[in-house]
Design a protein that fits this description.
Helix 2 runs antiparallel to helix 3, helix 6 packs antiparallel against helix 7 and helix 9 runs antiparallel to helix 10. It is globular, with a radius of gyration of 17 Å. The chain is built from 10 helices and no strands. The chain is an all-alpha fold.
Length: 168
């Protein structure tokens, strides 16, 4: 399907299936797509979304590696939402029992607080919607939110969201 696709919709549909089901051809297709579209940031956002949504335990490593891609910039909201937003909504891997997804997002939010606090206040949403999680994950998230709350110079929007979440 991927090789025979003559439009972006079909190409992405095949790539999404390979990604979602971790098909053996996934890595080759992802590399092919990235190679063909590395020059077009808007199209490459689709690739970044797939990187972040990979349903495998090693996805965080892939996300970190994708952040080193030449088209990725922490100053570009579209790239951030594509990669980090898709990872933060990756229900299984973002909520890893070791809290690595929470720590990663918090570290990024701390960096974004200086660079682009408006985007940070949008990306924090998965960390502040934790009512339905088990007590262990809630505790991990509270630890990260507390780390944010103690940050000197925390942007007003972030401070408001963090404060409300911790008051829950």
């Amino acid at each position: 399907q991927y090789q025979g696709a003559d439009n972006m919709t079909d190409t992405l549909a095949a790539l999404q299936v390979a990604n979602a089901h971790l098909l053996p051809c996934r890595a080759a297709l992802m590399a092919d797509f990235e190679g063909k579209w590395a020059h077009d940031g808007l199209v490459l956002d689709n690739w970044l979304r797939l990187v972040g949504s990979k349903p495998a335990a090693d996805v965080l490593g892939d996300v970190k590696q994708a952040m080193a891609h030449p088209t990725f910039s922490i100053r570009n909201p579209n790239r951030l939402r594509a990669l980090i937003g898709s990872f933060a909504t990756n229900q299984v891997q973002f909520h890893a029992v070791d809290g690595s997804g929470y720590r990663f997002l918090t570290d990024l939010l701390i960096e974004l607080n200086e660079v682009n606090p408006q985007v940070a206040s949008r990306l924090i949403t998965p960390l502040i919607q934790f009512k339905r999680l088990d007590e262990g994950r809630k505790a991990l998230i509270r630890t990260e939110l507390t780390r944010l709350a103690r940050l000197d110079g925390l942007a007003r929007d972030l401070f408001e969201k963090v404060s409300k979440a911790l008051a829950q």
